[in-house]
Amino acid sequence: MNSKIIALTFRGLRRRFKNILRSMVLVVLAFTFVTGVLLLQENMSNWQKADNKKHFGDWFVMYRSKQPEENESIKNHPYTGNVYTAKTVTSVKDRTNLSDIMIGTMSDGFISMGSIALEKGKMPDNDNEAAIDRNSLIRLGQGTDIGDNITLNDKEYTLCGIMNSYTNVWNDGKKLPGIIVTENEADNIATDETYIYAYSLQSFLDEQDYSSIAENLRKESGLKFNFTYNSNVYDYKPWGYAKVNNYIYVFIMLVGITIISYQITMYNKTRKNVRFIQKCLGADKGQIIFMTLTENIFILSISAVIGFGIASGTGYVIQALIKYFKNVSFFSIGQYTLIRIILTLVIAVAVSFLAGIITDRLSSLNRKKRTYNFKNVMTEKTFVKTTAKRFKWSDGCFQNIVIRVFSLAMAVITVVCAINCIIAYREYLRITDKPDIVGYAVKETPRSYTVYYDYTASLVKKGDVYTAEQIEKKIPDTWEYSPFQNHSISEYYFNDVKFGDSCMYRNISDDVLNYLKNIDGVDDITMGYYETARTFTWTGINTDNVGNGISLARSLKSGGADKKYIFAAGYVEPEEDIYNSLNDYAGGNLDYDGFKEGSEVVVFLDVNNSGVYDDSMKDGVTLKLHNYEMVLERNDSYESGDEYINAYNKLLEETIDGYEGQTDTQSIKDYICKNITDQQITEILDVYAETHDNAYIMNIYNQYKAGDISKEQLLDASGSDEYYSGVWRSIISQEWWYSQYGFYTYLVPAASTKVVKVVKVTDEIKEKFKYIIPEFGQYTVIGSTQLLHNALDSQNELIKKYLFLDELPDYMKLKMNPNRINIKYNLGSSVMATDNVVSSYLGSAGFAYTSYSDEKNQMRHKTIEALMTYGITGIAAIVIYLMVSTIILKGRLERYTERIKLLINTGAERDKIVMICMYECIWQSMWFIVLMPLELLICLVMVRRFVKQL
Q1: What is the pLDDT of residue 944?
Q2: Any stretches that span the bilayer, and where are they (predicted)?
Q3: Which terminus, N or C, of the chain has the lesser number of Cβ atoms within 10 Å?
Q4: Half-sphere exposure (CA, 13 Å, Cβ side) for 358?
């Protein structure tokens, strides 16, 4: 019997297929809506993880080995998955000649795993071709576009491809091959092979303590070095709001069930006559219920499948678009969504069935005859209005009231949600208008601080002035006081402080800026000027209170997390807000024009590492900003990696024929003596003659001064004593260095400024200026950009004068290059792992940084929670209202069908019928007036279509 009933039910469904499809439309939309929200919740976390992996690679651990075999412990570990390989075979120096760029190959799996994509060009096919990542190409400094010739270790290659940067992004990225050649070419040029093995994480591991797993892997493998854990990806906790997610799911599910139940109830009403006929033919109550339930389950199941398919297909399309533009794949359908869709389906069937039973019971209890008394007489003019009122009254007072109350409630909910969204977003804008992260470029070879004094003048120490003779007795281990030196310079190195690792030499590269701008969640990037490498002096400086004591012998005991800079400076544009803040701390004594021109500054004083303030730093002192030290001039190889010094060395190579890499060589002497003028020789040797009395060489100088011998004869003079051959050549070149370079470099400031006020550093001050001064030193200056400009111009002029140059090449010029970067995130950063990506990238790209994102994320979280809670609720209210209004109109038209046909058959125009039906639509839409235009448009389309089909 049941099989026959089922067959009968499905035959009926087949005959009414078109009508069923019309009834399913709203049910499909409801399931699409619910499924879409669930998929969004599930895949938001997947998107964050995928975006992280795009930046930092989809590998878990990676190690490097000289052996072409895998480590057995890592290979066979149950947590490690697929292995991907790369290989470096040799290296090439970058353009600064400081660090190496690795050359090698990568497997296709390694490239795919790391989302290493070509910006343009192709991977190498021939042995004379090379593909290079953007960062390595910039460091190499030899080419910028496809087809350029690149020289690597005396062999020329054609640049065939440029890849997105990874060597300055990944953990230990500099150890990866940044220059890719063919396998055959790699074998040909191999001099030092290193095999790189990168392992994925097994997919069954989720939300684990990944760092502990990686540490156990390292210990079990016995690898102390050359082992890297992808912390950028696996130490990041994806966005998730369990409370908001649960609220949204419950709310959306209730909305969906309400819409589905109403539509199924309306469908069941259309089947009342059929059920009555079936009952008359002998079907019992159980069979009627079974057939009704079967039809409902069939309609809901098909609707759920279609809605699920539409939502899933839309998700795949959105992911495809994101993948196309962002190269991120993340979409998946997990148990989270499937279980909740099934749960929604089951509840919807149950509620629909119960709603049908309750509706039938209420209808039977309240069924009675109703009569209507109409006072108005229908005329041609009042035909539309009167007929519309009669139609409306036929629905009953209770239903009309409920519909109006429902409309008003939805309108109030929508307005309240919109207001709360606006309030939340305005509060977010008010609090989060400052940068989220502040970073500054640091040098690969930082400088140790030094302060210099001129022996021949005086040394100020503890307020006492020492003569050169007293200094020789009191301070041993200083530079030898040569009789040929007009200026004897004493240098002081400070211990137990951070290196001065930030200076104004290079700007932030376009590669870095472009990468940062393309990180999802980054809203704005501004730049500024911050330095710690420049030393300051002032009259009366107490060197014992600078840093933590002084070392007269050279020392490199510096750096460390618990130490700090001695000198720091932030240079700002003289804008009104920053000037007003500084002037407040200066007690109103900071002159705006003086601040703008760089002649006045404010100094913020902190304690040294011993907890002592320097009382020699006082209001009104003249602060001297000294030149960056040129270590090459003293031929100190331990700091030869300095990029500025390397540029200077390059300048000397290009300027001086036969330059030998040292300053005290014949090529330097010949160059100076060739370019120096007679007037300059006379000026420097007159000073020299005051302190030297060698009769023989002075006799030669007197002859030159009297005009008896030429400059060339002076330089080559030897007389009868070959010992003095060329002595004046050495004296002139040495004195030129001391008088025109050494003296000005170490003793004459690059710029001077007045300290208007010395303010002791407090937490309030650090908070106030944290976006200008990333790290406060013991002495921190805030001055205008003009002050920095003066100092940089002074050092450029100094080098030009010393080397007799009219202009410096661009690579040697100190410029106003921003080296501080302030990055502001947008609201989406909370769900896009922005701070994790930016922080990791800045660290890999050579920036020190401080993130303030956590404190702002709290506001973002609250804002997102508000937007999601109120926004989803408001959107759902609008969707529910439009859907319910559409359902109500559809049901109303179906109830009016016979009466409308009667009116048409008795001569009523179809346009009049449309106006009659729209009369009630207009009246109902006024209760949600914001949506009135849209609702009326939908109603008009439905009514016209319905009337046209009659």
Answers
A1: 82
A2: 20-40, 247-267, 288-318, 338-359, 401-425, 867-889, 925-947
A3: N
A4: 9
Q: How many CB atoms lie within 10 A of CB 620?
A: 10
Tokens representing 536? 């300051």
Question: What are the CA-CA distances from residue 345 to residues 146, 257, 302 (Å)?
Answer: 57, 8, 11
Q: b or e along 873-908 (b: 16 or more beta carbons within 10 Å of the residue's beta carbon)? A: bbebbbbbbbbbbbbbbbbbbeebeeebeebeeeeb
* Alpha helices (H) in 271-334, listed in sequence order: 272-280, 285-326
- Confidence at 504, pLDDT banded by 50, 70, 90: confident
Q: What are residue 506's phi and psi, to 5 degrees? A: -115, 145
Q: Which tokens in the block code for residue 824?
A: 């502001």
Average pLDDT for residues 717-729, to the nearest whole number? 57
Maximum alpha-carbon separation in the chain: 145
Cβ atoms 855, 446 nearer than 8 A: no
Q: What are phi and psi of 574, to 5 degrees?
A: -75, 60
> Which residue type, as a one-letter code, is found at position 716?
D
| Burial class (CB within 10 angstroms; exposed 0-12, middle 13-18, buried 19+) of 362 | exposed
**From the CB of residue 235, how many other CB atoms can be counted at a distance below 10 Å?**
15
Ranges of each domain in the chain = 1-55+236-368, 58-229, 380-431+863-950, 437-632+749-842, 664-746
Mean pLDDT of 72-86: 88
Residues 6+ apart with CB under 8 A from 416: 870
Give dist(CA 431, CA 416) in Å, integer.
23
Rg of the Cα atoms in the chain: 41
- Between CA 919 and CA 384 the distance in angstroms is 8
Question: Closest by alpha carbon to 101, among 153, 140, 128?
Answer: 140
**61 pLDDT higher than 60:** yes
Instruction: Give the pLDDT score at 396.
Output: 53
- H/E run at residue 422: helix 397-431
Share of the chain above pLDDT 90, in %: 21
Query: 547-551, 755-759, 932-936 — which one is most confidently predicted on average?
Result: 755-759
Mean pLDDT of the 528-554 span: 75
Please name the amino acid found at residue 706: A
Identify the weakest region by mean pLDDT among 270-279, 569-578, 656-665: 270-279
- SS3 (DSSP) at 597: helix
pLDDT in tens, 626-653: 988 765 544 443 344 567 877 888 888 8
What's the token pair of residue 154?
């005396």
- Residue that has been written with the tokens 């007009």 in this structure: 486
**pLDDT value, residue 660:** 74
With bands split at pLDDT 50, 70 and 90, how would you rate the model's confidence at 914?
confident
Q: Is 43 exposed, middle or buried (0-12, 13-18, 19+ CB in 10 A)?
A: buried
Contact status, residue 935 vs residue 885, Cβ threshold 8 Å: yes
Burial class (CB in 10 A: 0-12, 13-18, 19+), 871: middle
Helix (H, G, I), strand (E, B) or coil at 207: coil
Pairing of strands 536-537, 61-65: unpaired
Q: Are 504 and 158 in contact (CB under 8 A)?
A: no
3-state secondary structure of 673: helix
Strand 100-106 to 177-180 pairing:
parallel
